[in-house]
Amino acid sequence: MEVGNKYHVQWKNGQQHVGEIIEIRRLRGVNSSSSHTVVQNNSYLTNEADKPEDYEYYVHYQTFDRRLDEWVAYKRIDISNEMSGERHNRDSMKSRKNKRKLLIDCTAESKIDDKEVKLLELEREHDEITKVKNINSIVLGRYEIETWYYSPYPDEFVGEELMHVCEYCLKYMKKPKTLYHHHLKCHKYCPPGVEIYRDNDLTMYEVDGHENKIYCQNLCLLSKLFLDHKTLYYDVNPFLFYVLCEVDKKGYNHIVGYFSKEKHSIENYNLACILTFPPYQRKGYGKFLMSVSYELSKRENTTGSPEKPLSDLGKISYRSYWTFVLMQIFNNKESISNISIQEISRMTGFKTEDILSTLHYLNMIKHWKGQHVICVSQKAIDNHLQQVTKVRLCKPECLTWKPFSERPPKRQI
Ligand code: ZN
Fold this sequence. Notes:
The chain has helices spanning about 85-110, 115-130, 175-185, 215-225, 285-300, 310-330, 340-350, 350-360, 380-385; strands spanning about 5-10, 15-25, 40, 55-60, 70-75, 75-80, 135-140, 145, 160-165, 170-175, 195-200, 200-210, 240-245, 255-260, 270, 275, 305, 365-370, 370-375. The protein contains 9 helices and 19 strands. It is an alpha+beta fold. Among the domains are: about 5-85, SH3 type barrels, CATH 2.30.30; about 85-130; about 315-385, Orthogonal Bundle (Arc Repressor Mutant, subunit A), CATH 1.10.10.10. The strands form 5 sheets. Strands 1, 2, 3, 4, 5 and 6 form a 6-stranded antiparallel sheet that branches. A 5-stranded antiparallel sheet has the order 11-12-13-14-16, sandwiched between helices. A 4-stranded mixed sheet has the order 8-7-9-10, covered by helices on one side. Residues about 30-45 and about 85-110 have low confidence and may be disordered. The chain binds zinc ion. Zinc ion binds near residues 166, 168, 169, 171 and 182.
């Protein structure tokens, strides 16, 4: 068995799926001196007495998202049926060669550019480092959560079965005992920053990346475990973080999710990163976070849009949110044909291009004498609204947020 080969692998539910071997490592407890060593590439049976069962295999399932990649035992892999791994290797080499060739063609044409080559090289290196999850599960408040992706936590925290995170200050620790002692000292029970939203058991804080650097870096590290992108995690100064919490009966604030926003966005982006932590997903919090980001844009007297490029999942979430809000407007409007795209944009804070692309996607817009005409039936509106069951949107009256231009200047200490 080699890295790059593909086999039928038994998945959690017993079904078989085609999986590619991404990495191989010796099982813990086998030849304990090197139990943590990740075995490089092909010659992983280094010791003659080694058996394939002494190793575990990091598998990417072809039909699934990378977040479902996992370490599997040898017995779950059907080695009798290799799925042309060699061909795959050759193909990927060919594609790498093509990429390089393309790059060389480009550089020849524009007479640049070492920079591009270096960038590609860095990207390859980044892919290499981040292809295997480094932390399996975390404890966050009441929940133990299986992670989805690599996150650049310091090496000394990697390789433990569980990492423990304080859900208030987001400090990370190896041992439950350390967390216990930390809780005796950590009396925050809420994120730092200023509370900007309160509706019964739901609260949101604005945290400035410059003023609360460590907290925001910890938030980025934590969220990277569930986000598959290549952002830098250390330069948090230019961002504001809007952290959503559920408040329990004792008044403790349990972090649910967040979105970040550039303090000054040239492109008028109103959201950079968005995440609902897994235990709180499918409860309508994603739409809530988006609705807050648009409410902020409206208070700034502008329109906004999420940072591009959107991930596949981001695209689906935004499409679903835009559709829901548009259908709500159409549902409350007596005559849809009288409403203009500009008016919808003013009502929602959505950019006109996002409204148009959503309506095109839904096949609800036509061109008529150089004008856009919205064509939608009540049945279609009802259908879309019925599909959304759990939804919480920002209530403007609960939001006590002012744009920076309207805030008094901060006192210098
Ligand atoms: Zn803490």
